[in-house]
Amino acid sequence: MAFSAATQHIAGIPLLTIVAVEYGGSFMPRLVRGTAPATPLQLRFSRTGHAHAGVLVILALVALPYADVAHLDGVWRVIARNGIWVAAILMPTGFFVSVAAEPGVEPIALDITDPELVAQVAEQCADVSLLVNNAGVMAASTFIYAPSLDAARLEMETNYFGTLSMCRAFAPVLATNGGGAVVNMPSVSSFYTNPLDASYGASKAAAWSLTNGIRIELAHQSTLVAVHASFIDTDMAAGIDAPKISPESVPSRPSTPSRPARSRCSLTSGPGLSRHRCRAITS
């Protein structure tokens, strides 16, 4: 089959995009292994965007010869020749742009159960004045009938000891930056034990007690706020059929601190990732 001159010229564009697709393919293993910082949403969308890019580029090259033999005229010829390769560029770009990091936010890889890594992050983020401990796990494990204590230990190691490790590491940082504040997320499970995830409730009750104790210990330098939230519309509550509040609405409803927190930089910790911005830190 002989290709028209227009098809030969246009084919060069999707061929060039293969270089970008290959680069994305070399970057994806870093995301999957966790060596490149990314939120869970960014990880899922990066996979989706890369998959769309590869499929659409191949489809664009396959479709070009058919545009020649279709003998279309006017706008339909333009669409037939250019529609797929343009989509191959725009659709993945849309995926990546939609999950791009918020300006001023620096993703930082963090496992709060690793004391050495927590200490490194505290040293790296020395400008933090607001710490939000949001990282947690829920293994849906019962007290008596769970096959082992592994799930309970994992929940306690993350929800209690991990939160304690973050508070200990950042307490001096907060003091240096004028006091600041710590926000822990015990949730309603800290005072209500669901039989289906009983060990999770125990770990959250420990986190609540931890929060009350740290509030007293850091009274001279900071305000500590515990947020007891019900079901929040996240992956952890995806299988629960009940009313949920949006993650965005939680920061607007925290317990009223005894004095306003001065927030210049913050750290917010989540599963496997923290976000450092010039105003706050969340784990």
Mind explaining what this structure looks like?
- This protein is of the alpha/beta class and 283 residues long.
- It folds into two domains: 5-98, no CATH class; 106-233 and 244-282, Rossmann fold (3-Layer(aba) Sandwich), CATH 3.40.50.720.
- The protein has helices at residues 5-33, 40-69, 74-98, 115-124, 150-176, 198-217, and strands at 105-109, 130-133, 181-184, 223-226, 266-270, 273-277, 281-282.
- Strands 1, 2, 3, 4, 5, 6 and 7 form a seven-stranded mixed beta sheet that branches.
- α1 runs antiparallel to α2, α1 (5-33) packs parallel to α3 (74-98) and α4 runs parallel beside α5.
- The longest helix is centred in the first third of the chain and has 30 residues, at 40-69.
- It is elongated.
- Residues 255-264 and 276-280 have low confidence and may be disordered.
Write the layout of secondary structure elements.
Elements: H1 5-33, H2 40-69, H3 74-98, E1 105-109, H4 115-124, E2 130-133, H5 150-176, E3 181-184, H6 198-217, E4 223-226, E5 266-270, E6 273-277, E7 281-282
Parallel strand pairs: 2-3, 2-5, 2-7, 3-4
Antiparallel strand pairs: 1-6, 5-6, 6-7
